[in-house]
Amino acid sequence: MVSAWQNFKLAAQLGEPEQVPVALIVDSPWLPGYAGIDTRDYYLFPDKWLEINLGLRERFPDIVWIPGFWLEYGMATEPSAFGVKLQFHADSPPSVEPVITDLSFWADVKPANPQTDGLMPLILRLYKVMDERLQAEGLGIKMVCARGPMTVASWLAGMTPLLMEFALNPDRVARILDTATTTIIRWLHAQLDTLSQPEGIMLLDDIVGMVSQRHYEELIQPHLRRIFDEFEGLLRVYHNDTPCPHLLASLAEANFDVFNFSHKTDIAEVKAKMGHRVAVMGNVPPLDVGVRGTPADVTQAARECLDKAAPGGGMILSFGGGVSPGTPPKNIVALAQTAHEWSQRNRT
What we know:
Elements (H helix, E strand, L loop, with lengths): L3 H9 L9 E4 L5 H5 L3 H6 L1 H14 L3 E4 L10 H4 L4 E3 L7 E3 L5 H5 L12 H17 L6 E5 L1 H9 L1 H10 L1 H25 L5 E5 L8 H18 L4 E6 L7 H4 L6 E4 L5 H8 L4 E6 L1 H6 L3 H15 L5 E5 L9 H19 L1
Parallel strand pairs: 1-2, 5-6, 6-7, 7-8, 8-9, 9-10
Antiparallel strand pairs: 3-4
Helix pairs in contact: 7-10, 8-9, 8-10, 9-10, 10-11, 15-16
């Protein structure tokens, strides 16, 4: 029997599996609330973290959880390696506050060392321990993640100063993004090196969608391409749920395999503009439908996505972003059932 993960990989390679895969990005904004525990407990107690993530596989066997067994602290991991201020909360991931907003300072900072800096070494140690436990059960951690260079840079100095600098001092932006990119590559390699059988990476960077096409191509694309080129041969997923239809054709040149994007951008438009170069992962609205809608609403939105983008392959059904806090399990079930029914109907 073909597994959900095998269907996911085939679709990521622009194939057309008999069963359209459903893949969902889940992390600490959703999981603690789903499990009914304090967010700090989710971070502090590895056995509870493992229990919750194993429970997802058992409760929703037809869904691929991306990245699956993700050790993260919201947005805090990469910025923590540069000394930003973190504040932990009972009901949400840590908040991140820049300490130094002068971009001239960050332009001269050296890349971080994942073995010693911030939260990274603790995550690496836990990845090794948990992967060994999962391997003993015939499982394993297949994917690792990092925030992208624009997201990391925005947490160091603040969003507004960073975006203003694109116009005022692009050379300085280039230096900061180079430092962030080197750190990200080191961080991804360090995570991969702790695992027995890794198969992929995911990069998350919504801030990319906030710049013009010219600034993207001149200042950001070389760094995205450098990251994805570094991991050629692995499955590469890029998440950016800021609406950016003006960048779609350019993003297709960044050398990733799967694009998870905003529900505000029509999935047919994404597939048309990116061509058959990138698999599309979307595009059900995560809040208005995923959280606030009924299972019938999910079914309708999912069918529309499948009708538009599944024919011809390269389609992975998902929400247009990660699973939002408050998403009820019944709506996740509806998403999986719709993909199954659509696949059966269109296979016969």
